[in-house]
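quick one before i forget lol
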Amino acid sequence: MLSSPRPRIDLLQLHYFVAVVDAGSITKASRLCHIAQPALSKRIASLEEELGVQLLHRGAFGVQANDEGMVLYRA
């Protein structure tokens, strides 16, 4: 039986994801986490790519965790 590779998620990615959801904004979370906004966006995109799902609904007025994102957020 072949097993699929497990996602390689680090705790810092999870910390950033939680900060983004809590702040409701990547820009606000970047200030709170002391990381540049483009770098934070890249870390979130990398997390989504590794998991193979979109975690956030990005809108004109901020971000919200979608259903998949809420599963991760609550875990």
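fyi Strands lie at 56-59, 62-65.
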